[in-house]
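re: that chain from earlier
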Amino acid sequence: MIVYHGSNLTVSKPKLITQNRFLDFGYGFYTTTNKLQAIGFADKVTKRRKEGTPIVSIYEINDETAFSACSVLRFDAPDEAWLDFVSDNRAGNYTGLSYDFIYGPVANDDVYTTFTLYTAGVLSKQQTIEALKIKKLYNQLVITSDKALTFLKFIGTVPEEEMNGTEKI
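^ sequence. v structure.
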């Protein structure tokens, strides 16, 4: 499996660092199988940090080997279990089991409003899940342990012309 990590710098040796905000799947190194999503995130991170340039690091992971050697939590759809997990993590209230890898849909900017309405109590859990089913959700693979990081092999960065949308067809 090829995964991407968007940032404002090249991350050739990923490591787990303390985060300053609560994210969908909690603490970890966030990647995606969607290159365009990673490019968008790299741009967003660079603007937020006001330094560096948008860079997408590319990694290879033998998911069959890694997932059999590590604990994995997998969400195949934005269902009730996913919604509860993301809600608890975003609120900083998750107290459940720890996993080496967490895979599933990302609650990106397209679903932020729906998610906010749910956490404010305006939408019920079922209304939120139904609303999310019509959104285009990307995925994320979060590496949450040093053991899991050992399965990630850095293979390079996305070329500048792809980052700028000037790739020749």
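The mean pLDDT is 88.
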